[in-house]
Amino acid sequence: MFEYAPAPESRAVVELKPSYGLFIDGEFVDPLDGGSFTSINPATEEVLSEVAEAGPDDVDRAVRAARRAYAEVWGPMPGRDRAKYLFRIARIIQERSRELAVLESLDNGKPIRESRDVDLPLVAAHFFYHAGWADKLAYAGLGPNPRPLGVAGQVIPWNFPLLMLAWKIAPALATGNTVVLKPAETTPLTALRFAEICQQADLPPGVVNIVTGAGKTGQAVVEHPDVDKVAFTGSTEVGRQIARAVAGTRKKLTLELGGKAANIVFEDAPLDQAVEGIINGIFFNQGHVCCAGSRLLVQESVYDEVLAALKRRMARLRVGDPLDKNTDVGAINSAAQLARIRELSEAGTAEGAERWSPPCDLPDRGFWFAPTIFTGVSQSHRIAREEIFGPVLSVLTFRTPAEAVEKANNTPYGLSAGIWTEKGSRILWLADRLRAGVVWANTFNRFDPTSPFGGYKESGYGREGGRHGLEAYLDV
Amino acid sequence: MLARMTATAASARSDLTEVARSEATLRSFLHGLPGVDQVGAEQRAAMLATRSIKTTAKAWAIDLAIRMVDLTTLEGADTPGKVRALAAKARRPDPADPSCPAVAAVCVYPRLVPVAAEALRGSGIHLASVATAFPSGQAPLEVRLADTRAAVAAGADEIDMVINRGAFLAGRYLEVFEEIVAVKAACGDAHLKVILETGELVTYDNVRRASWLAMLAGADFIKTSTGKVPVAATLPVTLVMLEAVRDFRDATGRQVGVKPAGGIRTAKDAIRYLVLVNETAGEDWLHPDRFRFGASSLLNDLLMQRTRLRTGVYSGPDYFTLD
User: Rounded distance, CA A70 to CA A177, Å?
Assistant: First the structure.
């Protein structure tokens, strides 16, 4: 028996202060009404730091600082000079990537292998990519003289804290906007570290402002009258509230919301890689992925062998300490999210689906959920319709390509989809018919800053990344 | 659909004896195997290469890797003296440390089998020989069979044969199959390792088909390479072969071994292969009877790492014998 000895990444590379203030106008400041909350390590429930809670007056300060920076410095600055700052930030992120990866795993619970090999390289790539656009906006095909919008209010989720920050801040700054960003209340620490990087890069004060807090703080950002542009990534429920809040205002809005992606496996699929794709689709980042392949659609003729291979592969998943370099599945981000995953899983059993998890020892402390699949799921089950946002896969079957399309599209969401087949013509036929913003063929959960990302239907609107993503931050 | 049957669970074991009844049945079987997506296979191998094997796990893996080495010399310049030195090294890889295990086998050209057999007598170390007009295999079948018989008669208990890549690439699968069957018969009780020469097969689909072809024809081991063409063993190729032996056992109940050979030079490389075995075929293959490394310089790096783990310090290469 080949037992891998513990291989923990060192925490020593991350120095945490006992408390953090708000980052406004280039400095860390105390909140006006003195509120605070704590951020914990979801793998151990240990308190990591105390973080300031921004009230409406703090948000107002931040928006004012952003407005001033936009009007006086960042808006008038030539694109080539903005690019220098972005390139500088990108390089500092690369230099400090180990520290940022460890901190991300500590605060979020995701395995260090993922924060090291996926999150951080993509974060740096987003800044590099958008730095390149800063002085070429006139050539982006969006008109001869695209202008920035002004102050962007941005609210991001906890599943990819630093990566979502990069998706929001990099295009906003490249296009000449200034930002007020609110990170999620369970994962504020890498955003605060990013604030330090802004200082290190000598970014002019007020260009980036980070206000920490929960839903109320986010609401204050979104509803502030001097915000020109709102960008939100998170749940469809909160997305609806935001859409209502900005309706009838001049604010531009983009929303990246939930998903219930179909991962479609045909009988002629490259089987071993399809199984890897299923695993990656649903267990990557503990399933805390808006575009997760949470509905597996398998052609009936290969159902038995796909399921057997999937179970064998799931038994190999290494669940545990996020800082161990060999961990595949880390901790659930919060007690609240764990409760939601449990509730929906129990609903799955109650509605008659069959639940299976590999034998797996979960730690006593912290928030954990074993990788789980449900078979015998039908379209009407809650676990086939609602976003679980956890390591839970619903397995359904289909008989013909037309039925696959019908089932894949039979959801209020439309963020992503996966196709597994060796037949190229079928990939193109299917991709044309799937109502999903991203369609992966013979792969899953691949991201690139050059590729636009966004949803259909209740998965939101607007695109982030690529040339298309610039438009959301420009007056064209 | 025939291929689909082979990949199902062990409970539904299929009778594959009819597969090679004709060129047509064999072809439809091999072409019916699930494809391999190159990007996905390489991604999986690269991910597994990031596994961090430390302390006790590393010590365990290094000793296992030493026990899996087919210590090899396949040079035109090989002499009885060189082979005797190699055999001594195989018996006792680290003269300074009697707790160091012996290697699995010594692998030599047929002409040197008698020398190796004499030098290895009583050691329990297997004696492998590359037969069948290694490395090209481009000799008449009768010559290749005679080569095999001679090696076995001289004392080899393992034969490493090469497949007929020309016939394989031309689609003459039955010819390749029948040649392997013939060599297997010529081996008698000796174990047969079938070298696919994956560097010449190029695609992973070909690697999967050749693996099944060799296993159906009776191979005890499937081996990646001769070490004599530019591309030898790689992690993704070995991954595909490990999937093949795993699926073959599910389908037939027979367990076939895997031997990557060529280009594996460091302990780190070897441990990456063991991780691949562990997480693909599973622990049943973590045994010298089921997994081997065809290598020469690998052994000294394993010994150096082993010594460092035991003593805490690196000793220079001069402290390890060059044989």
Answer: 6
How many CB pairs below 8 Å do chains A and B form together?
81
Question: Token digits for A47?
Answer: 């308190």
Same domain as A150, residue A97? yes
What is the residue range of A246's domain? 19-257+457-475
Task: Render pLDDT for A295-345 as a digit per residue (tens, 0 to 9).
Answer: 999 999 999 999 999 999 999 999 999 999 999 999 999 999 999 999 999
Taking the C-alpha atoms of residue A417 and residue A440, their distance in angstroms, rounded to an integer, is: 6
Collect all residues with Cβ–Cβ distance below 8 Å to B303 and sequence separation of at least 6. Answer: B66, B93, B94, B100, B320
| Helix (H) or strand (E) segment spanning residue B227 | none
3-state secondary structure of A92: helix
Tokens of A140: 């982006």
Residues A296 and A371 grouped into a single domain:
yes
Min distance A409 CA to chain B CA atoms (Å): 26
CA distance A148 to A217: 25
Contact A443 B40 (CB under 8 A): yes
Integer Rg of chain A from CA: 22
Strands of the sheet containing A36-40, edge to edge, are: A19-20, A47-52, A36-40
**3-class secondary structure, B180:** helix
CB contacts under 8 A, A 203-242 vs B, are: none
Q: Is A99 on the interface with B (CB under 8 A)?
A: no
Beta-carbon count within 10 A of A16 CB: 16
Q: One-letter amino acid identity for A382?
A: R
Q: In this predicted model, what pLDDT tens digit does every residue of A202-226 receive, in sequence order?
A: 999 999 999 999 999 999 999 999 9
| Angle, vertex CA B4, rays to CA B1 and CA B10, nearest 5 | 140
- Beta carbons within 8 Å of A283's beta carbon, 6+ residues apart: A314, A317, A328, A329, A371, A391
Nearest chain B residue to A423, by CA: B35
Structure tokens, B184: 């297997």
A42 and A69 share one domain: yes
Across the beta sheet with A460-461, what order do the strands follow? Answer: A27-29, A22-24, A208-210, A178-182, A151-155, A229-233, A252-256, A460-461
Angle between helix B267-280 and helix B235-252 axes, rounded to 10 deg? 30
Does the beta-carbon distance from B8 to A305 stay under 8 Å? Answer: yes
Model ipTM value: 0.95
CATH assignment of the domain containing A32: 3.40.605.10
Average pLDDT over residues A432-461: 97
Euclidean distance between CA atoms A86 and A207, whole angstroms: 12
Cα A112 from chain centroid?
16
CATH dotted code for B34-310: 3.20.20.70
Q: How far apart are CA A437 and CA A426, in angstroms?
A: 18
Q: Which of A372, A342, A369 is nearest to A357 (CA)?
A: A372
Q: How far does Cα A429 stand from its chain's mean position? A: 29
